Amino acid sequence: MSAATPPPVIVLVRPQLGENIGKAARAMLNFGLTEMRLVAPRDGWPNPAAGPAASGADVVLANARLFDSVADAVADCPHVYATTVRKRGVTKPVVTPEVAARTIRGEAGRSALLFGPERSGLETDDVALARTIVTVPINPEFGSLNLAQAVILVAYEWSKGAGLASPPTVDLDPPGSQDELEGMIGQLDAMLETSGYYYPPDRVPTARRTLRTLLTKPGWSSQELRTMRGVLSALGGKKQPKG
Asked: Cβ neighbours of residue 213 under 8 Å, at least 6 residues apart?
């Protein structure tokens, strides 16, 4: 993303429920977007139901700006995208969220993404203000997305090029040595021999081979091998030291 390209603005057009505004704010902050604009929310603003639904995305709600019209909300944005899954009688480019995000990252100036009310989506007049339509590839037999789902799909695509931190990696224990593994297998084999598990005699080679195959499939770590041998020792009646 160019240093001159600010993150896109999320514009919720006539949202109906405060809970959905809060959930949209949560989706935004998950992927590094913080600027929300609200156009004529049905139940007014601020809405006490938005806070709990935001689950900590309070900075988005606190800075949300209220507008009377879509035109006012996007007046400072040279690039306006309307999200809709419905066909419109307006001839405009239609792109996926991935393509839209890539274009936004390469454009100078502020971009706005419009999301319509929960029940009906954006109206034709709202879409007419946009220069591009964003449509999510979706099951034609069930094209129902709630507001937060729509926001998170678009926000995620934008975030992939935004340099957000990746989830921390967890270092795995190195695999145990062959000698350690053989020690565990030998211990188990001796215990099974003593217990009379290997019967009848003509099946002993097959049984031993099957157990070895089973035990050598995973990459046992040293800790796992020590744990298993402790289990075997306990099963064999050897008391483990305390403390």
From this structure: none
238 — pLDDT class (breaks 50, 70, 90): low
Fold of the domain spanning 9-159: Alpha/beta knot (3.40.1280)
What are the phi and psi torsion angles at 94 (to 5°)? -120, 125
Q: How far apart are CA 212 and CA 185, in angstroms?
A: 7
pLDDT at 4: 65
pLDDT tens per residue, range 32-56 = 999 999 999 999 999 999 999 999 9
Q: Are 145 and 116 in contact (CB under 8 A)?
A: no
Q: What is the CA radius of gyration of the chain?
A: 30
Q: Where are the domains of the chain?
A: 9-159, 178-235
- Dist. CA 111–CA 121, nearest whole Å: 20
Residue 232 has pLDDT above 60, yes or no: yes
Burial 152-167 (b: 16+ CB within 10 A, else e): bbbbebbbeeeeeeee
The amino acid occupying position 223 is Q
